[in-house]
Amino acid sequence: MGADEPPRRREVRPRSVARVLPDVAGLDKTFDYAVPASLGPDVRVGTIVRVELHGRRVGGWIVELVDAPAAAVDATRLKPIAKVTGWGPLPDVVDLSAWAAWRWAGRRSAFLGTASPPVAVRGLPSAAVRERSTVAESSRNVVVHRVPPAGDVVPLVRDAMARGDALVLTPSVAGAARLARRMETPVARYPHDWARAAAGGCTVVGARAAAWAPVPNLAAIVVLDEHDEAYQEERAPTWHARDVVIERARRARVPCLLVSPCPSLDALAAAADVVTPSRADERAGWPVVDVVDRRREPPGLGLYSTRLVDAVRSGGRVVCVLNRTGRARLLACAACGELARCEVCDAAVETIEEGLRCRRCGATRPVVCAACGATRLKTLRTGVTKARDELARLANRPVVEVTATTLDDADLTGAGVLVGTEAVLHRVGRADVVAFLELDQELLAPRYRAAEQALALLARAARVVGGRAGGGRLLLQTRLPRHPVVDAALHADPSRLATVELVARTALRFPPAAALAAISGPAASEYVDQLRDRVDVELLGPADGRWLVRASEHQLLCDALATLTRPPGRLRVEVDPLRI
DNA sequence: CGGACAAGCTGA
DNA sequence: CAGCTTGTCCGG
């Protein structure tokens, strides 16, 4: 591969046997079909076809083409391919799908589906062919670029595009559209412009799925906001776009740039090099951080410190973040102190307008203490709705509540004070201050990635208020003012968190110091029983009906999972689970 | 997945 | 034993 490669010639002799992977859920096996001479030129590795299988017509992908004499079976007895539907993933992506099926213990069709055009593509538009300017040496192709929240990533993207056809990923589809608009040369958006991307000669931009985009002359890959969890698919196979493109770049021997204000430990572990801004530039790109130590405050202020109240009264635009919806998520009797729980299932109840509602089973009941009959309950955990009312009183101006369920077209431009779950940070354009009413909830969340996620949240907030030069401010209410996350934000230096976090992960054997898979569902125990006598993987659990499989690295974990047979029944295999 | 086919169950 | 359900197997 390279600039001096002779132009590719069409196959002289049509290959006559196609190995087809049917797009049938629950089937992860290829079948051989004869390629009728009439279809010859349309049939390539990746082509989407329809074939007869077990008496019905199903769609599928050609994953391999075999010369008839070399094929083990007699080509004349094979059923022919019934129809060519159109273009499918290019051969490099077809190969990548086999790797991903191993890496995330999933079916290949899940990946090929993501890599396929949303509507049938019969022909590709003509393309302006560009050559790649340079080819990276394969061993140092992953580079992490730390760019502060207020920094501009467009120059990095332009550099990548200058190398030739680049693939650029953003966490959200909206972000991809925004980036596409900022580029002066046209780019193809994935999956919408599938055919244009497959034709080559342009940069491809998209969200997670674009990791699977066709880029025939790939020259570089850029992952923006690499730390964002939107890059991981929630449904099994739980593939991660960052890890897919790292492997893709390695195979194509092109550079892979992972860009983030707070790079994940996984990115840092994969990187051959980390490019950091100067201390001055990084400081300028983060806002001023006010830490309110809530241990030093008089009791009775609730969620609202004096500094917070000053901020909401200041007249500037203030966004308050509280990651709890509803009014009150945990209540206790004002008389006897008993926790308010559901009469049906014992779970904690929350307040709604008509009374109390169980958060687990939805049963409702009037506001009465089940233990002593008192009718006055006190709030132990305030939700966003209640915070809105209280803030409105304190601020003496209207306060708008924003959660993930707030309508997309709601006009927030005029709102002076907003309160919401972290969704508010995605909805609000700009603000003078973002205040975290209860940061400790994020810092101490019972997930091993909690600290990383908390810093990512602060980075997102930092983008809303801008860098310190523009007067941007974050206000953090916490009882853990020396927590490494607070420390990292305060010093505008995410490596302060990464360093201590890596030590903790190594001690606890969590990724990236180990590779994990979570196995759940009714068939889980039968599945994991096959791992019992292995020494290269460790089996933990079950906890909450979920088993954990741990190995020192993915090679061992995925090899072990690949040897298992799937018992009948529902089974969920999550490699690299997020929520543990 | 979904069709084919076998084995098991029911009712007259 | 017809008629139906349930389970298992397998696809080129």
Describe this structure in words.
The chain has 580 residues and is of the alpha/beta class. The protein folds into four domains: 16-115, PriA, 3(prime) DNA-binding domain (GIY-YIG endonuclease, 3-Layer(aba) Sandwich); 142-276, 3-Layer(aba) Sandwich (Rossmann fold); 287-329 and 381-505, 3-Layer(aba) Sandwich (Rossmann fold); 514-575, 2-Layer Sandwich (Alpha-Beta Plaits), CATH 3.30.70. 26% of the residues lie in helices and 23% in strands. The chain is built from 17 helices and 27 strands. The strands form six sheets. The protein has a seven-stranded parallel beta sheet, sandwiched between helices. The chain has a six-stranded parallel beta sheet with strand order 13-23-22-14-21-20, sandwiched between helices. The longest helix is centred in the C-terminal third of the chain and has 16 residues, at 450-465. 44% of the residues are buried. Residues 1-14 have low confidence and may be disordered. It binds a DNA duplex (12 and 12 nucleotides) through strand 1, strand 2 and strand 3.
